[in-house]
Amino acid sequence: MGFPFFIDMFPQLLYGAWLTIEISAICFVLGNVMAIGVALARTSRNVFVSKLAQGYISLFRSTPFLTQVYIIYYGCGDLFAHTPALRHSFLWPFLRDAFWYGILALSINTAAYSGNILRGGLEAVPFGEIEAGRAFGMSRFLIFWRISFPRAIRIILPTMSGETILLMKTTALLSTITILD
Amino acid sequence: MGTARFIIAQTFRVYEPLLAAAVYYMCLTFLITRVFRFLERYLNKDRLEPVQISTPLPIEVA
Q1: Do A178 and B6 touch (CB under 8 A)?
Q2: What is the pTM of this model?
């Protein structure tokens, strides 16, 4: 025990912290872009698409994140390593690195959680505002882009703050697949 | 966290790396909280408390 020991490990931990920030930032962007798609599919009027999104959300929310990481890293990693065509392709530097498997797993997981939150936000938009958009003759895309989406983001901000903190802390689980964060 | 475990494995000191990692995570959480607080203030200006605007005193009718 002692203060000098903390100084000694400072640079090492700082590097780990930087990796944590990097992973969180990439997964925040990727996950939330995917979440928009999930939320749109979930609110879709097409029953098949809506059920598909619901299945995706419930699948990734009802399994532990550690299990998902192991399935993606050991499962896919093992599968790819036994495919000679992939081993010699230009993709191999990506498929060799645990980093990208971690990013993939965390993004998919975040997309499920944020997608459901965003769905709640989209449904909480007052119907009168959407009706006003229709009265102006806006297309459905324009209504989404100018009315529902900005409005939903404002509604879900407090929830998203908690979700982002959870995302940042979940990166600690990636240390089990040799990412030294 | 991985780095903390690496240091624990190398030095056999359990508490210090974990404490340090906890402090790091707290700092990051604080940062995220701040960013979102700013965003909430910035995007929800309409929901903030109304600013008190000083109004002219009612005119005394003599």
Answers
A1: no
A2: 0.84
